[in-house]
Automatic annotation (TrEMBL):
Main location: cytoplasm
Keywords linked to the UniProt accession: Cytoplasm
Protein's name in the database: Rho GDP dissociation inhibitor
Region of interest called Disordered, as start-end residue ranges on this chain: 1-22, 145-166
InterPro entries named in the record: Ig_E-set, Rho_GDI, RhoGDI_dom_sf
Residue ranges of coiled coil: none
One Pfam family of this chain: Rho_GDI
Keyword Cytoplasm in record: yes
């Protein structure tokens, strides 16, 4: 399939009639409804305070890890993609991950908001086998400001079940994942591959 098809597959769904508001600086957000005490506390928890942070440079969001969680994983085994480590990420692209068929699992993503407020951040993932789309996941992550302590955010997705059967176990699945916001700004684009097997 063409790159154009991939672009369309990874496009976020839209809500009819919804229009994102114009982006504002942290200082502008801090001054909005400044007299509302509960809102001021909530904004402070997101690191939003008047004069607190200038517009930064570099990416607004850094995706740190993507992790596959399952109670069926053998003790001591983990499946974590270190997306901010180029060498680790390159190895992920070359070596398909082995996933046990018919198990319940969920995905966890960790990311850091570096500066600015980001709204409507979502994770989109398209799975193909032999060039044919077999699954698409779109998960809303939410809206965030920079953590006051510079800590990362973690989001666990709902549980899913991996396919099973002889046909499901044949071939390699190609996955393209994207983290994007309401404005269509892409914060991360990455690919990985997996195979289904009878055991981990």
């Amino acid at each position: 399939m063409s790159g154009h098809d991939d672009h369309e597959d990874l496009k976020p769904s839209s809500t009819p009639g919804y229009k994102p508001t114009a982006a504002k600086s942290l200082d502008e957000y801090a001054k909005l409804d400044a007299e509302d005490e509960s809102l001021a506390r909530w904004k402070a928890s997101l690191g939003i305070s008047a004069g607190g942070s200038a517009a930064g440079s570099g990416p607004k969001v850094t995706v740190l890890t993507l992790e596959l969680l399952s109670k069926t994983l053998p003790a001591g085994k983990s499946i974590v993609f270190q997306l901010n480590n180029p060498a680790s990420y390159e190895a992920t692209k070359k070596n398909p991950v082995i996933i046990k068929e018919g198990i319940e699992y969920n995905v966890r993503i960790t990311f850091r908001v570096n500066h600015s407020v980001v709204s409507g951040v979502r994770f989109i993932q398209v799975v193909k086998r032999a060039g044919i789309k077999v699954d698409k996941l779109e998960q809303m992550l939410g809206s965030y400001g920079p953590s006051p302590e510079g800590q990362h955010y973690t989001k666990d997705f709902e549980s899913e079940e991996s396919p099973s059967g002889m046909i499901a176990r044949s071939g390699t699945y190609d996955v393209k994942s994207r983290v994007v916001d309401d404005d269509g700004e892409v914060f991360a684009d990455f690919e990985w591959h997996f195979k289904l097997a009878k055991e981990w």
